[in-house]
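Next up, a chain.

===
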Amino acid sequence: MSETVADRLAFTIELSHRAGAAGVVHFKALDKLEIESKGHQDLVSNADREVETLIRDALAKAYPGDGIIGEEHGPVESTTGYTWIIDPIDGTANFVRGIPAWCVVIACVDGDGALLGVTYEPSVGETFAAGRGLGATLNGKPMSVSGSQSLSDGTMGVGFSHRTEVTQIIRLSEDLVSDGGIFFRNASGALMLAYVAAGRLIGYVEPHMNPWDCVAGLLQITEAGGQSQPVAPDVMLKDGGPVITSCPGVFERTCELANTHFN
């Protein structure tokens, strides 16, 4: 019997839970973490590396020949047409400081783009998942984006990193507030994208995201009825890119604000 997207998605959800449980072990023993800095506000710990190794080993066993792109280890070329994209702990800055706002992110892409995406937040036991053509779910129940029609009717996620100019976000945030909006940042872009898919945030914008931070969440948003400004899939996988996404009711205005400052 041929494998379906649903089969891969079920495997990925189970794997994300195993990876999350491994992360929690480290999260409960923060005094023993080995932490390194990769740059301004860009941290990595032995927990990141160990959890990514767990995920990679499971993928290599279950799907030999599939490619892998991860944050902490080198890429593996695909011979099957499938490539997995993983972030073992998104929100490491939170993780190492004991803030329970971090997640495991696993996505899979094929020649047509994102195939599936799972974001698991162990601290609260929430699993955001989507498969292409299958819709999006939160803990197995259907989720959908917000029905907001105005930036003043909800909260916009805003992200930034050392890869972009801080003035871009400062000016965008000023315009957002002037429009009657509110901005939110929790130091985990992947988690904020999942919150857009679940209708908790009306949108999310960031001048540049790496693929392991956004591919899963963008698929979740699409499958939950949201919209995103397109970035060529091959460009996103290789270099990352800007992320501008929201519920349909505020998409046009979100694009106007973000593109004014991101370009």
